[in-house]
Structures are given as C-alpha cells and as structure tokens.
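Appendix B. One record, verbatim.
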Amino acid sequence: MAALASTSLSKDPLSGGTPTRIFGSQLKSREIRQTQLRLWTCFRSNTGVKLKASAEPPALTQEIKGDKLGSIVEMGSGCDLFDEMKNRFLSFKKHKYMENLEHFQALSKSQAPKFMVIACADSRVCPSNILGFQPGDAFMVRNVANLVPAYESGPSETNAALEFAVNSLEVENILIIGHSCCGGIRALMSMQDEVDSGSSSFIRNWVIVGKNAKQSTKAAASNLSFDQQCTHCEKESINCSLLNLLTYPWIEERVKKGVLSLHGGYYDFVDCTFEKWTLDYKESIMDGKNRVVVKDRSFWC
C-alpha cells in the first residue's frame, strides 16, 4: 500500500522544495523533478492506489528506505495494469469498433438484445468471453451466485434489470448461468439452517435467496461429500431461480404466450464444459405443482 503524506496531495508535486537524498545519493534538481512527475502521473492515473495516513514529513523526495521502496514499486505496478488496460481498449477500438463502425453507431441509438443473461460475479465466469456475446447481443446482470429472488422478496438490482429487459427491451430469452467452484453456493451450503434475520453480513443475507436449493440438495445428496453437495447445489440453484422467474407476473405472462423462453446453463471451468437446458413451462406447472421440468438439454465439450 502506498504511504503518502496527506499534505503532499494538496499541491502539485512540481512546486517548491529543495533537493533531498533519495536512495542515499544526491540527485540534481532536474532529476528530482522527473522522479516527482513520474510518481505524480502514476498516482493521478491509478485510481486503485490506496492511501494511508502518515506521520512523517511531507514530500515524495524524502529519503526512501525499506518498505517505502516497496510502496513506489507497488504504485508502478498499478500504472502497468492500467497501461495494459489502455492497450486493450485501443486494440478494441482499432480492430472491433472502427471495423464495425456502422454497427456501433446503430447501437448508440438503441439496443435490441435477444438475451438477458444472469451470471455470477465471479471473475472467472465472463459470459461475453465464454459464450462470445458481442455488444448489443445480451443485456446482463451479474451477482453473487447468479441468484434470482422471488417476486415477493422486494426490489433488488436483479429484478430491476429483469423488469427493464423483459418489459422495455422485450428480450426473447433469459439465460441463468451457474458455474463450478462457486463461492456463493459454498457459503450457502456452509450456513446453519437457522438464519439470523439480524445478520450484518451482506453475503449471508443475499445467498439465503437460494435456501430452497440448499434444502433440496440436502434431501437428495446427503450421502455425498460436501464438495459434491456444493456441485449439486450449483445446478439446483439455477433451477430454483428459473422457478423464481415465474413468480414475476409479467415474465410468466410472456412465457405462457410463447414469446419468452427461460434457460439454464452451467459452466465447469475446471474441465471447460458447458451444459444448457430449457425450462418446459407447461410441464413445470402441471397440476398446480411448481417443479422444474427441462427440455432441449445439451452438453458442450
């Protein structure tokens, strides 16, 4: 973590000050200014740099020892990350945006995606990367454990996105993507059955949305190891979320009319396989019993 004196942030680092020793040697004024400029530019361009209070005298040109040197290196690494990001953006602009300018200009006026995708926030599970969605193809929302709360659970960013995607964009498909080694599902499976409603944990209060998946997993896979139960629950939670989608009146109405289809997907990033299935609406609600019946199951490997 970069330790910068708070007063050094209130003025341009190039203003005032006399040369002092850096790394035990005397530098010329011009070299000091170059060093200050490099550090200041890095700091200004790296919004990820974290600051902590320091009781030591201000100025970046103080004699640097031990962990202070590590702080400078860390700031440099942060700059490198954003330099790489900048290069990726410029590559995208040159090879994607400019070569498909007409398409992107059309997108600047409106969007008409065929899919809404609900996926996990896990950094290893990027739907655009895995499934090749291009800008304009899919309206996406990502949350911990790719959960969909029931309609009666009240407002959340997930059902706000659902409302916009279904009622305004009129997407034709909703795809919920779960994945292997999901930390959110593991947290759910590790929780005690008695939930403290006054818990201050945001994660705990969110993943409880998947409690039905946990209960059905415990009933069906109690003889399996904990890791195997988690894998079972990762898929079961997708099905429970598909049923939760049907608790939204405007979703069920469109599904009933045949203009909206609900799908589940499971990405195993250990073996790099993908399983896809579609909810059979008529069979799932037969006899008034909400259960998951699927069709068009396929396995991509």
